[in-house]
Known about the structure:
The protein is an alpha/beta fold. The protein is about 40% helix and about 20% strand. The protein is built from 12 helices and 12 strands. It has helices at about 10-20, 20-30, 35-45, 55-60, 60-70, 85-90, 110-115, 130-140, 160-165, 180-185, 225-230, 245-270, and strands at about 5, 30-35, 50-55, 80, 100-105, 120-125, 145-150, 175, 190-195, 200, 210-215, 230-235. The strands form 2 sheets. The chain has a 7-stranded parallel beta sheet, with helices on both faces. The protein has a 5-stranded mixed beta sheet with strand order 1-4-3-5-2, with helices on both faces. Strand 7, helix 9 (about 160-165) and strand 8 (about 175) form a beta-alpha-beta unit. The protein is elongated and about 65 Å long.
Amino acid sequence: MPVITSRNHPLIKQLIKLEKSSQYRKKTGLTLLDGVHLVQIYHAVLGSPENLVVSQSYSENSGNKHFLNTLFKNITPRITIISDALFREISPVKTPTGILALISIPKLNKETDNEAEIFSVLLETIQDPGNLGSILRSAAAANARNIYLSNQCADAWSPKALRAAMGAHFFLHIHENSDLPEITQKFAGIVIATSLQATRNLFEISLTGPIAFVFGNEGTGLSEEIVQAADENISIPMPGKTESLNAAAAAAICFFEKVRQDRASKAVLNVGTK
């Protein structure tokens, strides 16, 4: 199989654009997965990628060949080999893994668009893709379903957000450019906003049943409009000396307090039916 060595190759130009430009990702409906873990999860959930791009040294390793043959034993994607030097140049990370996948960004269908009664997350102006990816990872782990992003949020499908989420994207319904106040009006359950000024805290309210959590910008928090649109405003108790939590940490605490309460509620119901 020929090895691509030129930066002027059309595929290389495309990969560089996909790594750097959110507009190009949106225009083409494509993005990049970096590393074996993301490739494995994508394949398990959605099938083979459009194109698998590997470095020359990766392709020549017998263990890597066996892995690819085992993973794609039924349907083998197109595999493109590029020189190690060129792979280092286009890789979105400082220490390249040797494997990238070019994929189509999953499309939402009408059924997912209408799911307004389940565990959801609303994100307003989360601008750091690493934070965004971490929130998505925790949301998927806690079994949230719908994620609504305001139009000022970082690109959910950027390579950095995908790496931070570790495959969570493929278990969630991600709605970008959402009108968050409108979503709060349509949501059939309780909408809970996190705010440092709230008078009630996370551990004082019931989180069982359909819940939508709202989290805001890392520095400025939530807008007054979304705070007013929420059914509840809560804070997270912080007995220590810091004034605030990282957005991703705050989200994880809220998600798993809901998990805890849901499990406790089910345990009580199970005891009652015995």
